[in-house]
Hints:
Blueprint: H1 3-36, H2 40-47, H3 49-60, H4 75-98, H5 107-116, H6 123-162, H7 167-189, H8 194-219, H9 223-240, H10 250-253, H11 260-278
Helix pairs in contact: 1-2, 1-3, 1-7, 3-6, 4-9, 4-11, 5-6, 6-7, 6-9, 7-8, 8-9, 8-11
Amino acid sequence: MSDTTAGKLKAWFSIALFLVILTGISAVWHFAIVELAPVSIYVGALMWCPALAGFLTLKLTGRRISSLPWGIGNWRDNIQSYLVPVAYVSISYALAWSFGFGGAFDNETIAEWSAELGLQETPIRGAALMVALFASIQFVKSLGSIAGEEIGWRGFFIWELRKVMPFGGVALFSGIIWSAWHYPIIIKYGFGDPAYQIACFTLMITSMSVIMTYYTFRSNSLWPAVMFHGAHNIYVQKIFSPLTTRNDQTLFWIDEYGLMVPLIVTIMAIFYWQRAKVEGM
Length: 281
């Protein structure tokens, strides 16, 4: 057996071991979230399952946790990884508002935010401050749980896949697996047709995976993916979705289970896929 073949077999073994461990430990927290309650402590535990699966796989295959790409990378990649989700989420919601799939700047949300900050008499100022706090303070607070996912997915998993697949295969396969890992929660807590929501979510996550894989490999660091993931969650879940007024079409187009964000991020993913080819990834 050649060294190349042996190396690929070892990589496939690590990939399979990681997925088996991840499935086993995630099942505990999927059960807790689906059958008990979707509280933040259960969600946080679930989000750390990919990292734990990666650590255990390294331990069982005789490698060190220090072998993961812990370096901070360069700040250009980290900053861009924050700004890319800001761009595609902003474009997506601007289009949804323009086409009448929802309205901009929900008054109830603005009033709630202003009251929470003690700025009831100046609601516009209160809303602007809340957006700024979400984009900075809440973003930083969220990185602890998000790091748990990204240590596993972009710190370990895609590097093993890279040993046996080209860039496109790594991005697509990891994206599909990452999507499927969320399915129990979507099926339980989605607010519409599960098949439609799973399709939209899978397209979005797989497209995000292309961009995140690009920045991870270019920077040789898992931290751009952490920045990217954190910004995506904040701008979709905390800022733009709450600010959107609803009508009969809104749920089909906005948020992570609607179609608009997946469409826009897919266009961006095609651009980054081409960049990866040009850069020899």
